[in-house]
Amino acid sequence: MLEGDSLMLNVETCCKSYRVGAFGGGELLAVQNVSFDVHPGEVVSLIGESGSGKSTIGKMILRLLKVTRGNIVFDGVDISTLGGRELKAYYADVQGVFQDPFSSYNPIFKADRVFTMLRSEYFSGLSATDWHAKLEKSLDAVSLNPGDVLGKYPHQLSGGQLQRMLIARALMLDIRLLVADEIISMLDASTRIDVLNLLGDLKSRGLGILFITHDLSLGNYISDKTMILRRGNVVELGATELVFGNPVHPYTKTLLASVPQLHTKWQDVDVTIGAPPAPGNGGGQLVLAEGSLELVEVEPSHFAALDGDGAAP
Amino acid sequence: MSLKVDGLTVYYQSLRGDVKAVDGATFEIADGEIMGLAGESGCGKSTLGKSLVRMDARMRYVDGRVELDGKELPVWDDRKMNPYRFKHVSIIPQYALSALNPTRKIGTMATELLASRDIPLNGVVDEFKRRLKIVGLPEDVLERFPIELSGGMKQRVVMVLSSLLDPSLLIADEVTSALDVSTQRAVSELLVEFRDRGFVKSMIVITHDLSVLYQIADTILVMYAGKLAEKAPAETVVHAPAHPYTRMLISSLPEVGVRYAEKRLIGIPGRPPSLLEPPTGCRFKTRCPLAFEKCAEEPPFVEVAPGQAAACWKATA
Questions:
Q1: Are the C-beta atoms of B268 and A190 separated by less than 8 Å?
Q2: How far apart are CA A311 and CA A294, in angstroms?
């Protein structure tokens, strides 16, 4: 049903500014001139520290936040123009799953309410048997046993189960793009890899995924394309193996040198990548309007920002 | 021997019965040793750390002995522990980022804290300033409110405060979990520096992140469902783990360089048992690929190789 190589989501020089200060007189640029695209069956990871604007980008794509400048185009249509029925159709294609599974559920109601609401909105014409078959199919796709999770309250289920139910809910709509905002971070080590593998399986079925994370090793494991964000700017963008294998921007190198690895000590990493600079106070924090960065092509499908630090070659 | 824990058992009281969060923990920490304490959420690692300093109202001491520098720690008696806390054992609590009083400047809070413990301020305040400099904080943080500091700065303030009186044992509970990657590295390396400078004699670093422990810890103790699973030097735990749980956990961790398309990692099927009524015998047996009849009996936590202890019938390294 999907064309192999067509462009699905295109983010064009997107900016987001927040009003800050007591009377909203200040302007905080959370996202500056970010451009990238997502193809069907492609996992793009947005990696950044807190305050880098990574979640803001995800929320703008889900239309939970308005874009200040620039466009987000899905299937050739600018999503800011969508309204009413078109917007509903957009959400049938694009869904998000967020970090804390417990806060995505209303604790007063049973967890399967998320499915019931979906049914009344999108599948009101479906008969009960068809609905159940569909529900079981999508629970099966996320390797959940319907008997284990249906009819339970959120507190009776584990974080991993709740998170997988949310993914199942998104899948029921036959979505084409999933915005996964830190969906692994809350899960335990022994179960997080299952959710990651699930994303990998979905990707091979043609789902495009925007994988937002602060964890470089998770991003590296799953994604085709990686974008490193810092203070709302893209500092490096490219095929994952190039960004991780040949980091160009000093910030990317700092991040890579700081990731705790299981088989390499930090001292050994320093030899290959170079020691990170002494930590500033508040490294990942936002700054007030700063000139946006120009991306230059370092090698085919690998871009890095040229900034004041004399970064790119 | 700096710390000696023998059969420590701590339960949580709940309406439905006791939650057996720490069951028969027996281990030792040498002088100058940084021991990492790892495990999934709910495995009892924070409970074990906290019970060495202060049991909260829901926690109930059941059994066991704790010895610090040859003297017994009265962990079961909240009041008798007072002379030991802060001076001999100290903790960097899990939510250190919110441990600072928002209505006090850092300097005011520190002096009030010391005064409340009847510690003469002479010298200690200067030492506090000196150590703030060591961790890379400007002296004017004393004049600032916690809200004016970033997460990494607050974490460092709490670290300096907790270890100010040169305790024998410092327990660092999830100190790096809430921090960004680059700050995480800096804070982790400071822990090692504190040990190297002799600010603390030995340390227990509690975290769910094994890769952080591999970087800074000398030994790693892995817990599963309230029981000790394995303790060994960090290199051994990562490269030659003996317990099947450790082995599966290590191989399920994605690292920089490992990619889904090339190498698909496998998780551990199932989930940890409820600690309300934990299964008899080995608590990992339902998820363990090696389980056999004998696992119905509880495996002892014994040395399987020099310096490496594990609780598994099949763990012969």
A1: yes
A2: 11
Contact between chains at A49 and B180 (C-beta distance less than 8 A): yes
Among B residues 226-285, those touching chain A with beta carbons less than 8 Å apart: 238-239, 248-250, 252-261, 264-268, 271
Instruction: Please name the member of A261, A279, A283 whose beta carbon is closest to the beta carbon of B255.
Output: A261
In terms of CA atoms, which chain B residue is nearest residue A255?
B182
Contacts of B287 (CB under 8 A, 6+ apart): B245, B268, B269, B270, B271
A193/B209 touch (CB, cutoff 8 Å), yes or no: no
* Residue A228, amino acid: I
Q: Where are the domains of chain A?
A: 9-306
* B256: nearest CB among A189, A191, A256: A256
pTM beyond 0.80: the answer is: yes
Is B181–A190 a contact, with Cβ atoms under 8 angstroms apart? no
Residues B211, B199: contact at Cβ < 8 Å?
Answer: no
Chain B CB contacts of A149 below 8 Å: none
Distance from CA of B216 to the nearest CA of A (A): 9
Considering the domain A9-306 in this protein, what is its CATH number?
3.40.50.300
> Residue A266: closest CA among chain B residues belongs to which residue?
B215
Is the minimum CB–CB distance between A276 and chain B shorter than 8 Å?
yes
B167 with B194: CB under 8 angstroms? no
Confidence of residue A280 (pLDDT cuts 50, 70, 90): very low
Asked if residue B226 lies in contact with residue B23, where contact means CB atoms within 8 angstroms, the answer is: yes
A to B CB pairs, distance under 8 Å? 138
Question: Per residue of chain B (317 residues), what is the pLDDT tens digit?
Answer: 689 999 999 999 888 888 999 999 999 999 999 999 998 888 899 899 999 998 888 899 999 999 999 999 999 999 999 999 999 999 998 777 778 889 999 999 999 999 888 888 888 889 999 999 999 898 889 999 998 888 888 989 999 999 999 999 999 998 888 788 888 898 999 999 999 999 999 999 999 889 999 999 999 999 999 999 999 999 999 999 999 999 999 988 888 778 888 888 888 887 788 888 889 999 999 999 999 999 999 999 999 999 999 999 987 65
Q: Which of A297, A198, A49 has the alpha carbon at shortest distance from B264? A: A198
- Cβ atoms B136, B168 nearer than 8 A: no
